[in-house]
Design goal:
The complex is a heterotrimer of chains A (about 160), B (about 240) and C (about 400). Chain A has about 160 residues and is mostly helical. Chain A contains 10 helices and no strands. Chain A has helices spanning about 1-5, 10-30, 45-50, 60-65, 70-75, 85-90, 90-95, 110-115, 130-135, 150-155. The chains are: A mainly alpha (about 160), B alpha+beta (about 240), C mainly alpha (about 400).
Chain lengths: ~160, ~240, ~400
């Protein structure tokens, strides 16, 4: 049809689009990560990457595997559910290579106050004291065994 | 008390297999973990929280959370005169170093730990333009930091304020439910370090999980239920004043 | 914490979306509005606005070329933005951006401009020398066919493109409104009216911009302003402004009446932190004053000189008002806490990537683009660059 002759420029414009689209498809195939779409609209490999990150806290089971004496002390006392690293800090590197990394014992004056300083905001039944009145700056472990701290349950030193 | 490495491995088999994966450093999941068997959530037991901030500190240590940003934080509520619509709320540095001491008054105080709710119908993953944030098959909302553009649309879409843009990496960041720990049979850093058991990981696909049992037998709530996000952070005894 | 009143969730204190994100909808709004004005002539055959037809198209193109720049400066990883083309997430309104932008740029705006100018481009490619000749030659795509039949085909196809272009322009700017309006987490944004309000305010800003540009550029060229044209544009501006104002009032009245859980916090915010930008700049100076001025020009017969001054004032105030509206939406939506218990402050920086200076630069840049486009594709029939009269 003669109209096609006079519309040649339009076909050229359309041709540019088609070319660009083809280039786009090629680049897309090359660039989009292979695991994309594996589980959903995301890069499947990122799940594995997230799971492979190193841990900093070993978890109480790892501590208790070696430190059975402290674990037994704790089990019977008021701190039974306070995990080791809650006071001792992250120690996965120690659990991994006990000889190479020696943990520093925490300073009880600072540490214990964190939970046990009395405040009307805390639950009423929770054991809490005003540190100045209670111990006047003396380290808590002077009287309390940190692993089984209750005085009347045989935890006094 | 110096046990040999071999003895250690024999004593703790679950952790042992996990350690192998950790030490291997290969980007694939720990071999004894099957995504399809788990559907993760968390229980936060309000009456047990003492506002010590240990969870915030632990999360920061475990996950290298940048200063001034929080993957988890603790809020302290003060409700007076039964006025639920106007509580006084503070969260000094996210509660990381605890809260200032208060004297007794007529109102009630309580602490509310907050975190990503790992919503099953999450509004944040819905709005991501490229698929950089997603819900895993085991129910954890993660960010692919190698793919994220840093547009912050997900930060705007989260009703709970749990996301932020990492100041150095310039990508979205948030609580990952310590995915790198729970896939190795460990619990999250916040749960591990909570001294009162106010935070407990729960596997909603595991009928033997005692926390799952707790959820079935107690009145628990989620934050902003009207948003219908399918939030999986369940709060025991959540007060009506909590925002 | 400095700048915080009451309680904010800790991660909410610093704003995520800066003045650049205020600028982006303002710019795409100008694009959409300018195009709608051009379509008045092409599709609705409003002869009076014909003098602004080509200028409106070039204005739209100049601003559209500038539009992605504020977004690129904002992104944490702009080098990853092609991901929006390769793996767009179908549930995300923002993912539409790449494709809607490209569609509008190539299949609507560039195509329409090309079709309208093609005869002139072919003539210029034959008459000019040097680099210009090469540029025009490339623009002809190698075809020098400007027969009656081919031009008639161009006219027909151009008409269809404009027809498709109108909903495309609505899509280009409406999706921005949807980006905000679909966020249930943010009650200041969450509204089904948001895309509609954005579209109508875009039309106001685009029409006002083309009107001001036409009056300004004509004066610079020392030509006579076609008063019938400007009267016509001002009339459309007035009616569309009424619709825009009504929609915004509807949103406001609805909020006040329903008074849901967010209302107290938002109301306080509007009366304090947003008082200057919303009450004074957007509503009073940016909407009510131009509406009154335009209304007066519709009912009272003023002299040409007075009318032109009133139009110019209304247009400038309207542009300021629409910018203020974008500011109030974007910044306003981030300075209140989602706990409804507190507020933060937007600390706009000066010279950083998302600061005031880049924002100003990105506002000036489209005018530079427009200057180049006007030189390359002169919209007017008088002597062009090459000393020969351009085609009508």
């Amino acid at each position: 049809m003669s109209s096609f002759k006079d519309a040649g420029h339009l076909f050229r414009f359309a041709g540019l689009f088609v070319l660009a689209f083809v280039v786009f498809l090629v680049v897309r195939h090359w660039v989009v990560p292979k695991t994309f779409g594996q589980y959903g609209h995301y890069r499947g490999a990122s799940i594995g990457e997230m799971a492979a990150k190193p841990v900093k806290y070993a978890g109480h089971e790892a501590c208790e595997a070696c430190h059975t004496d402290k674990a037994d002390e704790k089990k019977a006392g008021k701190h039974a559910h306070v995990n080791c690293e809650a006071c001792h800090g992250p120690l996965a590197n120690h659990a991994n290579d006990p000889a190479a990394v020696t943990p520093v014992k925490p300073d009880t004056v600072v540490l214990c106050a964190r939970c046990h300083t009395a405040s009307a905001a805390k639950p009423k039944k929770f054991p809490q004291v005003a540190p100045a009145e209670h111990s006047n700056g003396m380290p808590c472990q002077t009287c309390h065994n940190p692993h089984s701290p209750a005085m009347d349950a045989g935890g006094a030193k | 008390m110096n046990l040999s490495r071999r003895h250690f491995l024999v004593l703790v088999p679950a952790a042992a297999v996990a350690w192998k994966a950790v030490l291997a450093g290969t980007p694939e999941e720990a071999p004894n973990y099957n995504q399809a068997e788990h559907w993760w959530g968390m229980l936060i037991d309000i009456p047990k929280c003492i506002g010590c901030g240990n969870c915030v500190k632990a999360c920061e240590a475990e996950n290298d959370v940048p200063e001034g940003h929080f993957r988890t934080w603790v809020e302290r509520y003060h409700v007076t005169d039964g006025n639920m619509t106007n509580p006084e709320v503070i969260s000094p540095d996210g509660g990381k170093e605890g809260f200032p001491v208060v004297q007794e008054d007529a109102g009630k105080y309580f602490f509310v730990p907050k975190m990503c709710n790992h919503c099953s119908d999450s509004p944040c993953t819905q709005v991501c333009p490229v698929g950089a944030t997603f819900v895993t098959p085991d129910g954890v909302v993660l960010v692919d930091q190698k793919y994220c553009l840093g547009c912050a649309y997900c930060v705007q879409a989260c009703p709970y304020g749990c996301r932020y843009i990492h100041p150095e990496k310039k990508v979205a960041d948030k609580c990952t439910l310590c995915y790198h720990r729970i896939t190795k049979g460990l619990t999250t850093a916040c749960c591990e370090n909570c001294p009162t058991g106010a935070r407990q990981l729960v596997d909603l696909k595991n009928p033997n999980d005692p926390i799952h049992e707790f959820l079935k037998t107690h009145a628990v709530q989620v934050l902003k239920p009207q948003m219908a996000t399918g939030a999986k952070a369940f709060y025991n005894e959540l007060d009506g004043s909590v925002r | 914490m400095s700048g915080v009143e009451g309680f904010m969730y800790p991660n909410e204190i610093a704003l995520q979306w800066s003045v650049l994100i205020v600028l982006y909808p303002f710019i795409t709004g100008l694009v959409a509005g300018a195009f709608i004005l051009a379509s008045l002539e092409r599709v609705f055959r409003v002869e009076a606005v014909k003098p602004t037809y080509r200028l409106a198209l070039l204005t739209a193109l100049a601003f559209l070329l500038d539009a992605p720049l504020p977004l690129q400066l904002h992104l944490g990883h702009p080098e990853r933005s092609p991901e929006m083309y390769f793996t767009p997430h179908a549930t995300s309104a923002m993912a539409m951006f790449g494709y809607v932008y490209l569609w509008y740029l190539m299949a609507v705006l560039v195509l329409e401009i090309w079709l309208d100018y093609r005869r002139d481009i072919v003539l210029w490619s034959q008459q000019s020398k040097g680099l210009l000749r090469v540029i025009y030659k490339i623009m002809t795509l190698g075809s020098s066919n400007i027969s009656e039949r081919s031009l008639a085909i161009d006219e027909r196809v151009g008409w269809i493109v404009t027809l498709i272009g109108i909903p495309s322009a609505f899509l280009l700017h409406g999706y921005v409104g949807f980006i905000f309006g679909s966020i249930k987490a943010n009650p200041w944004w969450n509204s089904p009216l948001m895309p509609v309000v954005f579209i109508f305010s875009a039309m106001v800003s685009g029409i006002a911009a083309v009107m001001l540009l036409y009056m300004g550029v004509t004066k610079l060229r020392k030509k006579l302003i076609d008063i019938r044209c400007v009267d016509s544009i001002a009339m459309y501006l007035f009616y569309i402004f009424i619709i825009d104002f009504s929609l915004e009032m509807l949103d406001l009245i609805h909020r006040i009446y329903e008074a849901d859980e967010s209302f107290r916090s938002l109301d306080f915010m509007v009366h304090t932190k947003l008082f200057l930008s919303q009450i004074v700049l957007q509503i009073c100076l940016g909407t009510l004053v131009p509406l009154v001025l335009l209304f007066l020009t519709q009912v009272v017969k003023f002299s040409e000189v007075v009318r032109k001054r009133m139009y110019a004032t209304s247009g400038a105030l309207a542009l300021m008002g629409i910018f203020a509206m974008r500011w109030n939406v974007v910044i306003g939506g981030q300075i209140f806490s989602k706990s409804f218990l507190g507020y933060t402050t937007y600390k706009m920086t000066l010279g950083t990537r998302e600061g005031l200076l880049p924002a100003i630069a990105l506002t000036i840049l489209p005018f530079i683009f427009l200057f180049v486009l006007i030189k390359l594709l002169p919209p007017w029939q008088d002597k062009d660059l090459h000393g020969t009269a351009a085609a009508d």
